[in-house]
Amino acid sequence: MKVLIFGAGQLARMMYLAGAPLGIDVQAVDVSNEDVVNPVTKDKLPLSLAEALDAADAISVEFEHIPEALLEQARLTGKLLPGKEAILTGADRVREKRLLERLAIPNCAHRIVDNVEQLDQAVDALGDKLILKASRDGYDGYGQWRLAEREDLPALKQTLAALDLKKVPLVVEQMQQFERELSLVGMRSKDGQLKFYPLAENLHHQGQLHVSLAPAPDCSDALTGQAQDIFSRLAEGLDYVGVLAVEFFQVGDQLLVNEIAPRVHNSGHWSMQGADTCQFENHLRAVCGLPLGDTQARGANVMINVIGYDGLDLELLKVPGSHLHWYGKSVRVKRKMAHINLSAGNYKQLGEAMLALADYLPASHFPHVLGEGKRLQAR
Q1: Binding residues
Q2: Which residues sit in the known binding site for ATP?
Q3: Which of 90, 298, 348, 351 gets the most CB atoms within 10 Å of its CB?
Q4: Chain segment 356-373, per-residue pLDDT in tens
């Protein structure tokens, strides 16, 4: 079988590696120039985009921000999974908010703003502690602004005045006080079967995911059920096929959807060692019409992102349960270079392993490892 992935980054690479044992040939499209490439070597393959689309048994994406003309080309083949509407929704916060409202799914109180003068009304409605997000092309902390008090509004309006808000509106959200951030990675098959990995607890730094812990500690059956119900409504509402990630804020016993990602997701990377079938293989199984694999977690697992740093001491592999996944990129500030998966029998053992790993990871680039290791060791 052949699967064509729009996007040629690390997620396409990991799908290629997951597909090889199944005999699934994964090719990737560099959407910047429409070259068809090998997802691991990045070597250009001797076929055109039209030929690759024709030869593929299934077409999918590794990220949401695909030029719409390319998505339409893929849609016309009848092979694009998930569908175009799901991908566009994940790429546009306004579409996403409208979907959540249509499905009556709880999310942060918000306003859509396409003119800076509307910000006064947004403050009147939501209060003066706000986060403003570009509706498109903003992620990992980019395309976001914060308002801490109304006195700062004139300066913020001056900053935003240079933007074309008619073209890219802002989603202005009430700053939410929450206990923690969680995510649910699951999948839906072509025949509508749903499977879920356990909820993961996510720790961020400067707007980027740094650590994911799975299963998330202290998740009641009711909380898990709430997350799975929201996922199910989204997947059904989008007629979704493939892996979908839903990010939540936990506020007491309630989950508020922060955003959705119509693809394999960073907070599911732990599944490469921590589950019988990883998210990359399960995505390929779903879009190819194969049976979905087991999603139960083996013990306790953590994923640690390596961001903007290439000085890893490979002696860290001495730590039992540690696995390094390197992406083969040149270093750049805030660029995801690799991730480390760490698995153990329980949270206490995982915390001890994280403390051992912290000896090899400078706190300046890995700000959560030591503290999270201590927290888990004390459980």
Answers
A1: 93, 133, 138-144, 181, 204, 258-259
A2: 93, 133, 138-144, 181, 204, 258-259
A3: 90
A4: 999 999 999 999 999 999
